Amino acid sequence: MALSVDSKIKEIMRSEEGKLVMEKWAPGSTKDPRMRLVGALSYRKLLSYPESADLAPHIEEIDADLKACSR
Length: 71
Prior knowledge:
Blueprint: H1 9-14, H2 16-25, H3 43-47, H4 59-68
């Protein structure tokens, strides 16, 4: 399964490598129970919310990391 910022959060969370990428950019995010509420959103959509403002500028780097773990 190829991952990217257009993948749904629940798809990324199913991948051990995807979880590592999430932890790299947002430490503690994979253990946060609120992530279950946003599972149907794409990572890109999640980054559009004000709570993710510090991560949004890194969207291309996050996308590259997610794509790399899909190889």
